[in-house]
Design goal:
Elements (H helix, E strand, L loop, with lengths): L1 H17 L3 H12 L4 H8 L7 H39 L17 H15 L3 E2 L5 E3 H4 L24 E3 L4 H10 L4 E10 L11 E11 L4 H16 L5 E8 L2 E10 L16 E10 L1 H6 L8 E8 H9 L6 H4 L2 H4 L4
Parallel strand pairs: 1-4
Antiparallel strand pairs: 2-3, 4-5, 5-9, 6-7, 7-8, 8-9
The structure holds 3,4-dihydroxyphenylalanine.
Length: about 350
């Protein structure tokens, strides 16, 4: 029995050295000290010993058990420590590594210009409104004094969806929508996409952007139009820039004017950009035609108003000296990165 006990202890201690993880350790513990374990079997066998032998043997067994328990305990601690160290090594973060750089995006030049325009006009008390790009002929043409077969319709090569629905050819229909639904005073700007059946080239695109302005109240005069556009021109291009009105024709305004701004490139001296004239043509405008006011349900005896419209691409091209309008649409990063 003594020999057996010594063998169990010796073997167990030997095996403990080779135990590699907590599960294996637990297995070993159960095999020796569990209910059906080797050591437990010896304890059971004690009953067959004579009363004289029992105390000495009991002491030996207890000693052996204590020794094994200690050994198992310290092996467990060793394993836990090793497992913890392995986990820490696995999860270690090197805070000295350089971070991953996130590429920063930037605004598209069209958006830069649009944001400037909206800031200028909202700063002057205008409200921003939008309208649909698929528009009724009624708003795009009829209410703007462009009845069917009117020759001025030819100036805008229209994409027709059907007889009554078009892709809007300008942002002016938003004026008509607002006039038919609101009472003066009205002071709005309407930015958005417009469509014309044009071939693509350096200065044309079938899809482009406009911003429309409309002011209606009692006693609005052409002086208000001029003052508003002068202020706009200076906020956009700087002090000293003024507007020049040239008589023109739009069915929805009377009188109408094409408006030029002092060339911001040469300050009016004449350069390549303004083709030597010192002026850059940027918008169409005029006093809202009384016929349009009445058709839209606004009393033209009491109210007057002015309106204007301009192409946003043109403003962007002028500001950034872009040689070809297509650069604005192609999303070539080499072009776009210049606007950071
Ligand atoms: N709708 C015109 C165009 O697309 C621009 C325009 C001219 C708008 C005069 C206006 C205006 O509001 O009064 O060419």
């Amino acid at each position: 029995m003594r020999e057996q006990l010594a063998k169990i202890v010796e073997q167990a201690l030997e095996q403990l050295k080779g135990v590699g993880d907590s599960a294996a350790l637990e297995q070993l513990r159960v095999r020796i000290m569990g209910k059906k374990g080797e050591l437990t079997a010896i304890l059971r066998g004690m009953g067959q010993l004579s009363p004289q032998e029992r105390p000495a043997m009991g002491q030996l067994v207890n000693e052996a058990r204590r020794k094994l328990e200690e050994a198992i305990e310290s092996c467990g601690q060793r394993l836990q420590q090793a497992e913890k160290e392995a986990r820490l090594a696995r999860e270690a973060i090197d805070v000295t590594l350089p971070g991953r750089e996130r590429a920063l995006g930037s605004l598209h030049p069209m958006n830069i210009v649009l944001e400037d325009l909206l800031e200028i006009f909202t700063g002057m008390g205008f409200e921003v409104v939008e309208g649909p790009e698929v528009e009724y002929d009624h708003y795009n043409f009829e209410l703007l004094n462009l009845p069917k077969n009117h020759p001025a319709r030819d100036a805008q090569d229209t994409f027709y969806i059907d007889d009554n629905i078009v892709l809007r050819t300008h942002t002016s229909p938003v004026q008509a929508r607002i006039m038919t639904t609101r009472k003066p005073p009205i002071r709005i700007v309407c930015p958005g996409r417009v469509y014309r059946a044009d071939e693509v080239d350096a200065t044309h695109s079938p899809v482009f952007h406009q911003i429309e302005g409309l002011v209606i109240d009692e006693h609005i005069s052409i002086g208000d139009l001029k003052g508003t556009l002068d202020t706009f021109a200076q906020r956009l291009y700087g002090e000293g820039v003024v507007t020049r009105f040239r008589p023109s024709f739009f069915p929805f305004t009377e009188p109408s004017a094409e408006v030029d701004l002092t060339c911001a490139n040469c300050h009016g001296k004449g350069c390549k950009m303004c083709k030597g004239t010192g002026w850059i043509e940027v918008l169409g405008s005029g006093m809202v035609n009384p016929k349009v006011l009445d058709m839209c349900g606004i009393d033209s005896k009491r109210y007057t108003g002015f309106a204007f419209g301009m192409g946003i691409e043109r403003l962007a091209i002028l500001r950034y000296n872009v040689p070809d309008m297509r650069y604005l649409y192609e999303n070539d990063l080499r072009f776009l990165r210049q606007f950071r």
